[in-house]
Q: What sequence folds into this?
C-alpha cells in the first residue's frame, strides 16, 4: 500500500520497513518479529508497519529517524550505526546476513543508515530501486553493530560524537518522515565515530519529482515561491557536521607541540611516489580521516562543495546522478580532491581547462595555529588561495573545496589518430585545441615514430563498451584500435591499473591478481614495504612539463639519453601564471600550452642519475617537474624556480612555526631521507 493520509502519518512505500521502535511499543515490535520469522525473507513482501506518528509520540516512543538507500554502485556503502543493545538486534543481524549474501551474489548494493543518541531506536528503510526491482536493501550485519557498541563505550569522544549525531539529524529526519520523496542519507564513520554528512538522494524519483527537487535546490517551489524549509535544513545540518570536524582538527593543531613536525593521517593512500627513507613516516599525525563527505551539489549553478578527502571515484558517482562531472578528473580512482589541488593534478580535459585547481572557486584552510581561513581568488586571503595549489600540504590543512562542474553524458567515444612525427602530432593537438571540437585529449608516444592521439567526445549511445580494469591494458589498446567506447566513469579511470607501467605485467599475473591489484593497492604495498624500495637508483616515476615549442628539442635529447617508451602525453593549457612559480620562470616563457610527458617505470642503469639529468634539462628549456617524485635540487636552485617571496608570505600566515616543514625541506630533503 502506498499513501499519505496527512502530515501526521508515515508515508508507506511498497516493500518498505519504515520504523522499528523499542520496548515501549511492544505491538510494533511483535509485528517486526513476525516479519523476520518469515521462511523466505528475500522473496516475501515486507509488510509495512503502519502507525500514526502522533500515536508513537503519545505512547512515549522515540521520534523517527529518516533512513534511505544510497545510489552509489559499490556493493556495501557502509555499515549501520546504532546504539541499540546487542540482545535486541540479533534477529536483525541474522536477517541482514541472509539478505546481504543473496544481494552480493546478484551484484546489488546493500546499505542502511541510522541515527545515534536514543536508546531503543532502530530505524531502516528498504527501498526498491527503479533499475533494481525486487532486490532488497537492508541492515548492516551484527558484527558491525557489536563493534560500534564496544568501541563507543571506550572513549568520551565517541559519546560526544554520538550526541552530536542526534542533535544535528533530528530536524532533517522529521522532515523526511513527512516527505519521503525528498530523501537524505545520514552517514557516520564506524571506526572513528565522526559524523559525516547528510546527502540528498534523487536516484528513484519520477521526472515530476526531479523537477520539484531541482526547484527546491534553487530555493523556490515550482511556482517560484520560496520553499527552502527542507533542503536548506538538510544542507545546514551537513555544514554543521563539517564545522564540528574542522573545530576538532583546529583544536588538535593548536594544542600540538610546535617543536615536532607533523603530517596528516588520511583515510586514503598517498599518491606521491613511495620513497625508501621518507622521514615523514615518523612524524606526529593530525587525524583528518573523516574529511570525506560531499556537502552540496547545486545542479543549476553546476557547483559542488566537498571535503578535501573525497575521492574522485566517489565524486564522479555522486555528480553523475545530476548529469554532471568535475571538469578535470585525475586518472586514479582514489586521488582526493584536496590532493589534486596540493599536488597539481591534470588529465585529458586539461588542454582546455588547465588543472583541477583551475576549476576551484574557494578553499577552506585550517592553519597550524588553529585558525580557519576562507580563501578565494579575490578576498583578503587571495594569495593563500593561489599558493595552496602546489603547496604539497606545507601551508595548512585544506579542509573544504568549492569547485565547478560540467555537463556529461553516459558514454565517451574515443578516436585514435596515429602520426609518425612529432611535428604532425603537435599540429593535430594545436588544431583540436584551437577548434575546441573535443571533450578529451591525451595520447601515448609508443616510440619515436608512433604517436597516438586519443580524441574523446561525450556521446549518448554506444554500440559496445570496453573496460580496462582487469585483463585489458588501455595504453596498449591505443596502438591497435582506431576507436573505442567506454562508460564515462570507466573512461575517467581507464588508467587505474597503471598508465604505462601496468602491474602485474604477465597475462597469468593479471588473470590471477589484476582484478584486485589497482593503483591503490600497489601504493599501499610500496609504502608498507618501503625498506624494499631502491634508494640510490630509484625507478623513475616522473611527470615533466615542457613548453609546447620546446617539445621537439626535449624529445630529441630524451631519445639520446634515456630512450624509454611508452610515454603518456597530456596537453596542458596555461590558464593562469601561478603565484607559486617565480617571476623569472614566467618571464622567459611565451608558450600558452605545456606538454605533460609522463615517464613511468624506467629502471636506472649505470652511473648516471637520470632524475637529476631531467631536472637540469628542464631548467635549460624553461620546463618544470612535479615534486611527487624523487627530487635532487639544491636549495638555491629550487627557490630560483619556485617563488620563495610569495611562499614565505603565506607561510607566515598559515604556519609561522613551520610544523608542516617548508616546501623544499619536505619534498627535497625529508622525503629523500635527509634532515
A:
Amino acid at each position: 500500500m502506498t499513501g499519505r493520509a496527512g502530515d501526521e502519518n508515515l508515508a508507506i512505500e511498497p516493500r518498505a520497513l519504515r520504523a522499528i521502535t523499542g520496548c515501549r511499543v511492544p505491538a510494533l515490535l511483535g509485528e517486526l518479529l513476525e516479519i523476520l520469522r518469515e521462511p523466505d525473507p528475500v522473496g516475501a513482501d515486507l509488510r509495512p508497519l503502519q502507525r500514526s506518528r502522533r500515536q508513537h509520540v503519545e505512547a512515549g516512543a522515540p521520534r523517527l529517524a529518516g533512513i534511505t538507500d544510497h545510489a552509489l554502485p559499490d556493493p556495501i556503502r557502509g555499515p549501520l550505526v546504532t546504539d541499540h543493545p546487542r540482545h535486541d538486534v540479533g534477529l536483525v543481524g541474522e536477517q541482514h546476513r541472509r539478505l546481504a549474501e543473496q544481494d552480493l551474489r546478484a551484484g546489488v548494493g546493500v546499505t542502511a543508515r541510522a541515527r545515534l543518541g536514543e536508546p531503543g531506536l532502530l530505524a531502516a528503510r528498504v527501498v526498491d530501486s527503479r533499475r533494481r526491482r525486487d532486490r532488497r536493501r537492508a541492515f548492516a550485519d551484527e558484527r558491525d553493530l557489536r563493534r560500534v557498541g564496544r568501541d563507543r563505550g571506550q572513549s568520551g569522544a565517541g559519546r560526544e560524537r554520538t550526541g552530536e549525531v542526534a542533535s544535528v539529524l533530528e530536524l532533517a529526519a522529521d522532515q523526511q518522515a513527512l516527505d519521503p520523496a525528498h530523501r537524505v542519507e545520514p552517514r557516520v564513520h564506524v571506526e572513528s565515530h565522526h559524523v559525516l554528512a547528510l546527502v540528498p538522494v534523487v536516484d528513484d524519483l519520477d521526472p515530476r519529482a526531479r523537477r520539484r527537487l531541482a526547484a527546491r535546490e534553487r530555493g523556490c517551489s515550482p511556482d517560484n515561491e520560496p520553499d527552502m524549509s527542507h533542503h536548506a535544513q538538510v544542507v545546514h545540518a551537513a555544514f554543521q557536521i563539517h564545522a564540528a570536524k574542522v573545530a576538532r582538527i583546529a583544536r588538535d593543531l593548536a594544542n600540538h607541540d610546535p617543536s615536532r613536525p607533523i603530517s596528516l593521517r588520511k583515510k586514503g593512500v598517498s599518491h606521491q611516489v613511495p620513497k625508501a627513507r621518507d622521514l615523514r613516516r615518523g612524524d606526529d599525525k593530525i587525524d583528518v580521516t573523516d574529511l570525506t563527505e560531499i556537502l552540496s551539489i547545486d545542479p543549476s549553478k553546476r557547483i559542488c562543495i566537498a571535503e578535501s578527502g573525497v575521492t574522485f571515484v566517489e565524486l564522479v558517482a555522486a555528480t553523475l546522478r545530476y548529469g554532471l562531472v568535475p571538469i578535470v578528473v585525475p586518472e586514479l580512482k582514489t586521488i582526493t580532491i584536496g590532493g589534486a589541488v596540493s599536488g597539481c593534478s591534470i588529465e585529458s580535459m586539461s588542454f582546455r581547462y588547465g588543472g583541477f585547481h583551475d576549476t576551484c572557486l574557494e578553499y577552506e584552510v585550517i592553519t597550524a595555529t588553529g585558525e580557519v581561513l576562507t580563501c578565494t581568488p579575490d578576498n583578503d586571503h587571495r594569495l593563500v588561495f593561489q599558493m595552496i595549489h602546489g603547496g604539497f600540504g606545507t601551508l595548512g590543512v585544506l579542509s573544504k573545496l568549492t569547485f565547478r562542474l560540467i555537463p556529461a553524458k553516459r558514454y565517451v567515444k574515443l578516436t585514435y589518430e596515429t602520426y609518425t612525427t612529432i611535428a604532425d602530432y603537435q599540429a593535430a593537438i594545436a588544431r583540436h585545441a584551437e577548434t575546441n571540437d573535443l571533450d578529451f585529449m591525451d595520447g601515448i608516444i609508443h616510440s619515436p615514430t608512433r604517436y597516438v592521439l586519443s580524441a574523446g567526445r561525450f556521446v549518448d549511445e554506444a554500440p559496445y563498451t570496453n573496460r580496462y580494469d582487469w585483463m585489458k591494458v588501455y595504453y596498449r589498446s591505443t596502438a591497435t584500435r582506431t576507436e573505442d567506447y567506454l562508460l564515462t566513469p570507466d573512461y575517467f579511470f581507464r588508467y587505474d591499473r597503471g598508465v604505462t607501467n601496468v602491474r602485474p605485467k604477465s597475462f597469468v599475473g593479471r588473470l590471477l591478481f589484476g582484478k584486485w591489484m589497482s593503483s591503490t593497492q600497489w601504493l599501499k604495498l610500496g609504502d608498507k614495504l618501503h625498506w624494499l624500495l631502491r634508494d640510490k637508483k630509484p625507478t623513475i616515476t616522473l611527470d615533466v612539463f615542457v613548453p609546447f615549442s620546446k617539445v621537439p628539442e626535449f624529445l630529441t635529447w630524451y631519445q639520446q639519453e634515456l630512450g624509454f617508451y611508452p610515454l603518456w602525453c597530456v596537453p596542458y593549457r596555461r590558464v593562469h601564471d601561478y603565484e607559486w612559480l617565480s617571476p623569472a620562470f614566467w618571464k622567459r616563457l611565451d608558450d600558452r600550452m605545456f606538454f605533460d610527458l609522463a615517464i613511468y617505470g624506467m629502471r636506472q642503469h649505470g652511473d648516471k642519475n637520470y632524475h637529476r639529468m631531467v631536472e637540469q634539462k628542464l631548467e635549460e628549456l624553461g620546463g618544470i617537474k612535479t615534486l611527487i617524485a624523487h627530487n635532487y635540487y639544491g636549495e638555491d636552485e629550487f627557490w630560483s624556480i619556485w617563488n620563495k617571496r610569495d611562499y614565505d608570505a603565506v607561510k607566515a600566515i598559515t604556519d609561522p612555526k613551520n610544523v608542516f616543514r617548508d616546501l623544499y625541506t619536505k619534498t627535497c630533503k625529508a622525503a629523500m631521507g635527509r634532515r
Observations:
- Residues 229-254 form the longest helix (26 residues).
- The mean pLDDT is 75.
- Residues 13 and 131 are 16 Å apart (CA to CA).
